[in-house]
Design brief:
Layout lengths: L25 H19 L16 H21 L21 H17 L16 H22 L8 H14 L18 E7 L5 E7 L2 E4 L14 E5 L1 H8 L11 E4 L1 H10 L3
Parallel strand pairs: 1-4
Antiparallel strand pairs: 1-2, 2-3, 4-5
Helix pairs in contact: 1-3, 1-4, 2-3, 2-4, 5-6
Length: about 280
């Protein structure tokens, strides 16, 4: 299978699942996974791994590390196996450490496993995915933003102010919005994101990045990106902010009421989006 039937195929994207000139290449994703993992490890080395992670309720730092490294190893296994349909079992070798203090080094090793899987895999190779782009590059991109957002979670847990590269943040907003319509099996509240062609625009103020989400009777998705700027008509609701802040908004790490954003239009529509777009 190429696309899985995990959600309705109602997302109007290009064949690679991308929507504009801001999408990074797979080689960038590979390098960024390594860099984001190194930043993550630098945060948690020497920290109390029992520290709660407020942005992931019920998790401690060790849970956050275990999840992130397991995702990297699982996605790497999918890439190595070139899976063509939804796997019925998960045979990835997690090689978990025997003690909590071994988790930072284990996370570094997980990113090395991922780098090797990236090197051994053609990004254009057809694969089963749960999202919009039925190629190996889907998992490379998805792995990056899993890693980046949980690096942010670790920093928030220890009281640091996260910084996110703006170019990666724009790519991350795009990746989130492109794939969200396919996430219904593990994001069931997205079923409430239906409407009568109401639109929400998300626009970056510090980088090129503009997305128009349309809520239709049969589902929701992005309107096609129009490179000449003719697609900038007013939406029913608009959120504008820096790329990094918009990425944090997408993942619920920042509220739209924050000073970082300018919002306009239908507040009830924005609330419905916020209440039902959990990824």
């Amino acid at each position: 299978m190429g696309r899985d039937n995990m959600a309705e195929d109602n997302n109007e994207t290009g064949g690679d699942g991308s929507r504009g000139p801001w999408v990074s290449a797979p080689t960038t994703h590979c390098d960024a996974v390594s860099a984001e993992t190194a930043r993550f490890v630098a945060v948690v080395e020497g920290a109390d791994l029992a520290t709660p992670v407020p942005s992931c309720p019920g998790w401690s730092l060790v849970d956050l590390i275990r999840h992130t490294g397991s995702v990297q190893r699982m996605f790497s296994w999918l890439l190595r196996e070139r899976v063509q349909e939804r796997p019925l079992s998960r045979d990835a070798a997690l090689e978990l450490p025997t003690a909590d203090d071994g988790y930072p080094a284990w996370l570094t090793s997980s990113s090395q496993v991922a780098r090797q899987a990236f090197a051994d895999t053609e990004p254009d190779a057809p694969m089963w995915v749960w999202g919009a782009d039925p190629h190996a590059r889907f998992w490379m991109r998805r792995m990056l933003f899993e890693t980046l957002m949980h690096r942010v979670d670790a920093e928030l847990a220890v009281g640091l102010r996260p910084e996110i590269d703006p170019a990666l943040a724009v790519d991350g907003v795009d990746e989130f919005l492109v794939n969200l319509p396919f996430a219904a099996p593990f994001a069931p509240k997205t079923a409430h994101l239906r409407g009568q062609d109401e639109t929400i625009r998300f626009r970056c103020t510090d980088r090129a990045g503009d997305w128009l989400v349309r809520l239709r009777p049969d589902g929701f998705g992005l309107d096609p990106y129009i490179a000449d700027g003719s697609g900038t008509a007013a939406a029913d609701a608009t959120v504008e902010g820096a790329a990094a802040d918009l990425l944090l908004l997408m993942y619920g790490r920042l509220d739209r009421s924050a000073d970082a954003f300018d919002t306009s239009g239908d507040e009830d529509l924005l609330k419905r989006w916020a209440d039902n777009s959990e990824f």
